[in-house]
Amino acid sequence: MTERAKKLRKKATKAEQLLWYEILKSKQMEYRFLRQKPIDCFILDFYCSKLLLGIEVDGSSHDNKQEYDEARTGRLNFLGIKIIRYTNEVILKDIYS
Predict the structure, then answer these.
(1) Non-local CB neighbours of 75 within 8 Å, separated by 6+ positions
(2) Number of alpha carbons in the 13 Å side-chain half-sphere of residue 17
C-alpha cells in the first residue's frame, strides 16, 4: 500500500494538485493534511488525523463506481473517519467557493 501511495502522489491529478498547493499545504492551515494516506485497505487522497477527516477528489475513474465509493465511505465512517468528496470539475472550476 505504501508503494502504491507513493506512486499516486507522483501522479496527482490537476485538481488534487490545486487543492493541495492552494489550500491544504498552506501554512495558514491550522491542521496538517497528508496526501495519499493509506488507511485500512484504502488510500485516501488527503487525510487529517487530528480531525479524523478524509478528502476525496473524484475524477472520471469514479464514474459508475458509486456503490463501491459508498461502501468505502461507510467502512471509513465505521473507523471514525468522516469523508468529504469533491469532483475534479468542482475544484478546477472554482476552488474557493
Answers:
(1) 40, 42
(2) 5
Specify whether the CB–CB gap between 56 and 85 falls below 8 A. Answer: yes
Could you give the domains of the chain? Answer: 2-93 (3.40.960.10)
DSSP state of 95: T
CA dist 28 → 4, 23, 31 (Å)? 29, 9, 9
Pairwise CA distance, residues 89 & 57, whole Å: 10
DSSP state at residue 50: T
| Strand bridging mode 34-39 / 42-48 | antiparallel
Could you report the per-residue pLDDT of 39-62, keeping only the tens digit for each? 999 999 999 999 999 999 987 665
- For the record, the C-alpha cell of 52 comes out as 479524523
